[in-house]
Design a protein that fits this description.
The complex is a heterodimer.
Chain A: H1 30-34, E1 50-56, E2 62-68, E3 77-79, E4 110-111, E5 117-123, H2 126-134, E6 137-142, H3 149-152, E7 168-175, H4 179-184, E8 187-194, E9 207-213, E10 218-223, H5 228-239, E11 246-249, H6 265-277, E12 281-284, H7 287-293, E13 300-308, E14 314-324, H8 337-345, E15 354-362, H9 377-395, H10 399-406, E16 415-416, E17 422-423, H11 428-439, H12 441-450, E18 455-468, H13 472-478, E19 487-493, E20 499-503, H14 512-524, E21 531-534, H15 552-579, E22 587-589, E23 592-595, E24 598-601, H16 602-611, E25 626-631, E26 639-652, E27 658-668, H17 675-695, E28 725-730, H18 747-764, H19 778-793
Parallel strand pairs in A: 1-12, 10-11, 14-15, 20-21, 27-28
Antiparallel strand pairs in A: 1-5, 2-4, 2-6, 3-5, 7-15, 8-13, 9-10, 9-12, 13-14, 16-17, 18-26, 19-20, 19-25, 22-23, 23-24, 26-27
Helix pairs in contact in A: 9-10, 9-18, 14-15, 15-16, 17-18
Chain B: E1 7-9, H1 14-21, E2 26-29, H2 35-40, E3 48-51, E4 61-63, E5 67-71, H3 76-80, H4 91-97, H5 102-107, H6 110-116, H7 122-129, E6 133-137, E7 143-146, H8 147-150, E8 151-153, E9 156-157, E10 164-171, E11 178-185, E12 192-201, E13 206-212, E14 219-222, H9 228-234, H10 242-267
Parallel strand pairs in B: 1-3, 2-3
Antiparallel strand pairs in B: 4-5, 5-10, 6-7, 6-10, 8-9, 11-12, 12-13, 13-14
Classes of the chains: A alpha+beta, B alpha+beta.
């Protein structure tokens, strides 16, 4: 079912209308963020702490010779040879045929990308540590570098990992039977597409403080991460420590997007040094290190064929996709998650009869690929939606018409698609119809026809669905070394009636300190001001794989609801004793246990339990007012939120400038726990999608040198580039989650590259030019138009 | 990254500044908006920074009728906000308002920008088109250098060691002048990839087109050569690719159109 005002679960005893599920309450965390009182790794100073600076490889590929430490300062400089007992980071895919890479905390024998850490220097200040790093001399024997994935798979190419014999982490094949369709389909469209390597750019870079705490014989690592528990598991393995000897604290984290979903060589080095040196050490990544060494996402190459009947009905997609996975398989997502996703989600929200897809995860001399908001979806959506536009042209249809004919209709939901993705719910055609209406297609077409001069108008549409909160079976199938299971949360009542919620996920901009509190308020009726959400500390929270894959509101939200419900039962049991009624005759209303006219507040229950137990009968349960609740979704195949994007652009065909004139999104994230926060997510995602479409690119030269190593060269969209967005919400509750909510954290970033590219190509189509590479820059547009002019002239 | 260790001097007079700048490894700093990032990247590794912002002799403005003289330390923001005299039509204010971002304009100075000689700088291109003169100071006396001869290459000028830019003199064009200035940036405030300023000043017999953002010193086309159709050819030696040359030609055409419209406007 699909309605604007969907019913949501009112079955919880403490239903709090003002702050519970569905309410756009202001974010609790914004008070400290907006006043500048957040506490990030860079704000923390420990007694005796020293700073680290890394000596990093200036070469993309080189054999490592001698490393000469500055005379007299040898004890302040560390190389791989000094890291006794430290094991490399290894992240093996479980998929057959995967080739393993070893990422050393400091380079060993070879460097494989620019920016790879070769030595680390310790000094009282960062400036002095950098002075020291400048005096370390490293002998390199430069090797041929692989800066393009297609070169890397050419026979005779240099080898990133010598013993592999080629440069393929993994190849996979979805071997559908499409031969008959290829032979007979009346419409065949073909595209070769490329997306750029990007550098994820959270406001706060990476950073870590390590301290050895002798009292507990424990390493305490304060790090800017999205997944403290996973970092603990990985780090303990690399350092030869048992996991109880490692505590990870994530303080305020200034954005992640995937950039901080990784175990870092720098974390391993800092952890080793803190114990070895006996004093705390800190490393803060600066923008130069980030841009020069860590452009690590999004780079896909597609050879695409799609087949359709005369009416534009999709018959088959036949694809060959390569992902530039960089030099190392990163922990925990591996080098192959991206390509595995490409293979399984390329069909998008459409029905088709045949599907074939060959993927490669290619090793090159770049940083190992890390999943970025939307993971493979931004590229995949660009790929399939480009094909849909081509089919529309061939079939003589509007782009929206051809999509409408191919989308999975609402009456078939839930729907298992051609790659066995289980679309849980929704009305995809309705989302498309709404966004088409919002953007006013006939109006745009009329303006387009009337326009004269060098500036052209283009209309672009993209629609996609977004799997979120998917669990064990899905990730096991994708072969990644970390497979998420169930999620737990702790709910604890304080003696004065406040609520502490402890969760293993991390909130770094998603507003989870607010939305999880809203879940607590929904169940217990305790105001969110009295609910403390504790996260970011392995010592305080249940094990969790962390914050990624749009999983938190579903998984941690479900776990918090479960824990709070179980806590409610205990509160009610005690409250009933105090009211001298049967527990089944009571309920929780607005933060109190109520039976008829009689009432006792939750705070009173707590006070009695903790401080005046003599007032309770002897047979009261001793279990207490702290509960760990576990949660599983009714299916672990994930929620499928979805969205239709429509955009109008102008293209200056003399200068190649693209302006976004209008942007509309209709999205369905199921029940929205906090609609305002969801709007924020969609807007933020859109900004990043605009970056992918039009601005962000890390070019590399033939020697593997990154060419955009400052923010003057690496273009990020800003306030003047991000359009004022119009968002329309549909609300189709997921049948498989606690409140019907769906993962919605990534969708904003998925649609824009496809929609904007389609709009630009719509504008350029009359000129016989098509852009098949992201980002679509003025230079690329003018270059294509000039090539077309010359072609016409000759 | 952090800058290398350096000494920091804040002289009160040009004489002091000049002496300090004559020492080994010394470098002058105006508003520090370009030098600051260069220090942080350790691209610049000076032994000494001599900050010129406190020099009263480099401040102040003068409107002498036939020319405006702006102290070298005049920040872009003061020009943007109209706190300094301007040419007709608020030309200088409009140029200033589109330099980088407001925070940069608050501290960045006209003199500092010219001395830095970034090929993409707005003042380099526009003041060149306006026929401005750079007034310099040395202990032995100063000189007046036309902007067209001030810059010798990317980030290089004719300034000698110890020579300091004190002011910039901008001649006032005739009443029927036309002005055009257009630049192409990926984002507002970012470095331009094409830029052109055009001055049509029949009173003084000037028809001048200056193309910036070429990677080298601005390219000046005067008289009949100041023609958008000549731009692609004129830039052949500048090391730009065909796409960049095409874009420069388009921008030159738009700047010329703006200037001709303005010129027609003054006559109407």
């Amino acid at each position: 079912m699909t309605t604007d005002d969907a019913p949501r679960s009112n079955s919880f005893p403490g239903h709090n209308n003002k702050q519970g599920v569905g309410q756009s309450v202001p974010r609790k965390e914004d008070d400290r963020y907006l006043r500048g009182t957040g506490e990030y790794v860079g704000d923390i100073r420990l007694s005796g702490m020293r700073e680290l600076a890394f000596v990093r490889s200036p070469y993309a590929h080189a054999r490592l010779g001698a490393i000469h430490k500055p005379a007299g300062r040898e004890d302040c400089v560390f190389t791989a040879a000094d890291l006794h007992g430290v094991e490399p980071i290894i992240a093996n895919s479980g998929l057959p045929g995967f080739k393993s890479s070893a990422q050393y905390a400091l380079a060993y024998e070879k460097v494989r990308h620019v920016g790879e850490a070769v030595a680390v220097c310790v000094a009282p200040t960062r400036a002095e540590a950098e002075d020291l790093a400048a005096t370390v001399v490293v002998d390199y024997e430069e090797l041929p570098a692989l800066s393009d994935m297609l070169d890397a798979i050419t026979p005779g190419a240099a080898l990133v990992h010598d013993h592999w014999g080629d440069n393929l982490f993994l190849q996979t094949q979805v071997a559908g039977d499409v031969d008959e369709i290829i032979r007979t389909a009346p419409i065949h469209v073909k595209r070769t597409l490329r997306t750029a390597r990007q550098c994820m750019s959270p406001m706060e870079g990476r950073g870590v403080i390590a301290r050895w705490e002798s009292r507990l014989n424990q390493l305490v690592l304060i790090t800017s991460t999205q997944m403290p528990h996973i970092v603990r598991t990985g780090l303990a393995g690399c350092l030869g420590l048992s996991e109880e000897q490692v505590r990870i604290i994530a303080p305020d984290v200034g954005g992640g997007f995937g950039y901080k979903g990784i175990l870092l060589p720098e974390e391993v080095c800092a952890g080793f040094l803190a114990r070895h040196l006996g004093h705390p050490v800190r490393w803060l990544e600066d923008r130069r290190e980030q841009l020069a060494g860590n452009a690590n996402c999004r780079e896909h190459h597609y050879e695409l064929n799609a087949y359709a009947d005369r009416d534009g009905r999709l018959l088959a997609v036949d694809a060959d996709a390569s992902v530039d996975a960089g030099a190392y398989s990163i922990y925990p997502f591996s080098a192959c998650l991206e390509a595995a996703q490409v293979a399984s989600i390329l069909p998008g929200p459409y029905r088709m009869q045949g599907y074939r897809c060959h993927t490669r995860s290619v090793a090159t001399n770049k940083a190992g690929i890390v999943p970025y908001r939307g993971v493979a979806r931004a590229g995949v959506c660009y790929a399939i939606e480009s094909l849909m536009d081509d089919i529309a042209v061939q079939a003589g249809l509007e782009p929206w018409e051809v999509r409408l004919r191919n989308l999975v209709p609402a009456e078939l939901m839930p729907f298992d698609n051609i790659t066995n993705k289980h679309f849980d719910s929704g009305d995809y055609p309705e989302a498309l119809r709404r966004v088409v209406k919002a953007i006013d297609v006939p109006g745009v077409r009329a303006r387009q026809a009337a326009m004269q001069g060098p500036v052209r108008l283009g209309l672009g549409i993209a629609i996609f669905c977004e799997q979120g909160a998917h669990g064990t079976s899905v990730y096991h199938g994708w072969g990644i070394p970390m497979v998420p299971g169930f999620e737990q949360a702790v709910a604890r009542l304080t003696p004065d009636g406040g609520l502490e919620l402890r969760v293993g996920i991390q909130s770094h901009g998603q507003g989870l300190e607010t939305t999880l509190a809203q879940v607590g308020a929904e169940v217990l009726g305790i105001p969110i001001e009295r609910i403390q959400v504790v996260h970011g500390d392995t010592a305080l929270t249940p094990y969790s794989t962390g914050t990624w894959g749009s999983r938190c509101m579903v998984m941690a939200g479900g776990a918090v609801a479960t824990a709070c419900r179980e806590l409610a039962e205990r509160i009610v049991a005690i409250g009933a004793k105090l009211l001298q009624v049967r527990a089944e005759d009571t309920r929780i209303v607005d933060g109190a246990v109520v039976s008829g006219e009689r009432t006792v507040t939750i705070a009173e229950v707590a006070r009695t339990w903790y401080l005046r137990p003599q007032e309770l009968p002897a047979d009261v349960s001793p279990a207490g007012l702290e509960v760990t609740g576990g949660y599983r979704t009714r299916r672990d195949t994930g929620t499928f939120s979805y969205a239709a994007h429509a955009v109008v652009v102008s293209v200056d065909t003399e200068m190649g400038d693209v302006k976004i004139l209008d942007y509309a999104i209709c999205e369905d994230g199921g029940v929205l726990v906090n609609p305002m926060i969801v709007d924020g997510q969609v807007n933020g995602g859109l900004a990043q999608g605009v970056g992918t479409a039009l601005y962000e690119e890390m070019p590399f030269d033939a020697a593997g040198q990154p060419l955009a190593t400052t923010l003057a060269d690496y273009m990020l969209p800003g306030a003047t580039e991000v359009p004022l967005l119009r968002i329309d919400h549909m609300v189709t509750p997921s049948p498989y989650t606690e409140f019907g909510q769906k993962g919605i954290g990534e969708g904003g970033a998925i649609g824009p590259p496809a929609a904007i590219a389609n709009a630009v190509n719509d504008a350029l189509r009359p000129l016989g030019v098509r852009m098949d590479r992201l980002p679509i820059t003025p230079h690329r547009i003018v270059s294509a138009l000039m090539a077309r002019e010359q072609g016409v002239a000759s | 990254m952090k800058p290398v260790d350096f000494a920091f001097d804040q002289p009160a007079t040009l004489a002091q500044a000049s002496t300090m700048l004559a020492t080994e490894g010394a470098r002058a700093m105006g508003g520090g908006q370009s030098l600051g990032p260069m220090l942080n990247f350790r691209v610049a590794r000076p032994a000494r920074i001599v900050a010129l912002h406190g020099l009263a002799e480099c401040q102040g403005v003068e409107d002498a009728g036939d020319a405006l003289t702006l102290g070298a330390s005049t920040p872009h923001a003061a020009i943007e906000d109209g706190r300094t005299p301007d040419l007709p039509g608020g030309i200088l204010s409009r140029i200033a308002a589109n330099i980088a971002y407001r925070a940069v304009r608050t501290r960045g100075t006209m003199g500092g920008s010219l001395c830095h000689a970034d090929p993409g700088a707005d003042w380099l291109c526009t003041l060149g088109a306006l026929g401005a003169l750079v007034l310099t100071w040395t202990p032995r006396g100063g000189r007046m250098v036309p902007l067209s001869g001030f810059v010798t290459g990317a980030f290089r000028t004719v300034l000698q060691p110890g020579e300091i830019v004190q002011a910039i003199r901008i001649p006032r064009p005739g009443a029927d002048f036309g002005w055009g200035y257009v630049k192409a940036c990926r984002k507002p405030g970012e470095f331009a990839h094409a830029m052109c300023a055009v001055l049509l000043d029949p009173t003084h017999g000037v028809r001048r087109m200056v193309i910036g953002a070429t990677g080298g010193p601005p390219v000046v086309l005067e008289g009949d050569r100041a023609d958008p159709a000549a731009v692609e050819g004129a830039l052949k030696g500048a090391g730009l690719g065909p796409v960049e040359r095409r874009m420069q030609a388009v921008i030159a055409g738009r700047a010329m159109e703006q200037a001709m419209q303005a010129h027609r406007g003054t006559r109407a």
